[in-house]
Design a protein that fits this description.
By secondary structure, this protein is of the alpha/beta class. The chain has 8 helices and 12 strands. The protein has a domain of about 180 residues: Rossmann fold. InterPro entries: AAA+_ATPase, ABC_carbohydrate_import_ATPase, ABC_transporter-like_ATP-bd, P-loop_NTPase.
Length: about 260
């Protein structure tokens, strides 16, 4: 296995007297999909916000491409190439696909004039690089897109900025069967192109289908880190709900469990 592109070591985070994350180790590898799973309140959102620079870290260390980094601001994370696609997608319905993909990062020429042609070209090239065939024009209004198409645009927006790590928060939530298939294929392509992908999901079918590795959080701790090919849905659910699995095959993965 190659070295992790993103490495979190012994991260702790408290809000007042509530210790939300306890000595969390979390690695993201290039070319792999890592599923981050856990029940509500397990600490998934807090961990992601710490990596995004939204929440400060109490103690612990974060390394990116082997170098220690201080993620004290969201702009630092995005500057490194860490992008986040949250569940609300953060798309503007009154704008078209190109305008959404460049929202807040518009290309300008001759001072204050927007370079519409160049932005449209780059938006089209990004969608083509991801083999997206469900969007007919980058000038379509986002308001007229289906749920799967909107998710595709949000992911393409993250990819546009030469991202190295992409976090996807519940990307198939509220999608139909066909749209879920399109999004999962896209998630797999992101990893196949060499990016480190983090899939945050409660859908175990999605996790087992596209993830290479699973990191299960339980009450703010890492209950286990397992390879998907060596695990079953039942075992992952046990880690989520009880913080441990009765299967002997997970003994090594849970050896450091301190719950």
């Amino acid at each position: 296995m190659t070295d992790p592109i993103l490495e979190v070591r012994k991260l702790n985070k408290s809000f007042g007297p509530v210790h939300v994350l306890r000595d969390v180790d979390f690695n993201v590898y290039p070319g792999q999909v890592t599923a981050l799973v856990g029940d509500n309140g397990a600490g998934k959102s807090t961990l992601v916000k710490c990596i995004a620079g939204i929440n400060g870290i109490d103690t612990g260390e974060v390394l990116f491409e082997g170098n220690p980094v201080q993620l004290t601001d969201p702009r630092i994370a995005t500057g490194l190439g860490i992008e986040f696609v949250y569940q609300d997608l953060a798309l503007a319905d009154n704008l078209d696909i190109t305008q959404n993909m460049f929202l807040g990062r518009e290309i300008r020429s001759f001072g204050s004039f927007l370079s519409d042609g160049e932005m449209e070209k780059q938006a089209r090239q990004t969608l083509e690089s991801l083999s997206v065939k469900t969007v007919s024009s980058v000038r379509q209004s986002v308001a007229n897109l289906s749920g799967g198409q909107r998710q595709t645009v949000a992911i393409a927006k993250a990819v546009l900025w030469n991202s190295k790590v992409v976090f996807l928060d519940e990307p198939t939530a509220a999608l139909g069967v066909a749209q879920t298939r399109q999004v999962l294929d896209l998630v797999r392509r992101l990893a196949d192109q060499g990016r480190g992908v983090v899939l945050i999901s409660h859908n175990m079918n999605d996790v087992m289908e596209v993830a290479d590795r699973v990191v299960a959080l339980y009450l703010g701790r890492v209950a286990a880190e397992v390879m998907t090919k060596d695990s079953s849905t039942t075992q992952i659910v046990e880690l989520i709900t009880a913080g441990r699995s009765g299967d002997v095959g997970l003994a090594a993965a849970t050896a450091n469990e301190s719950i």
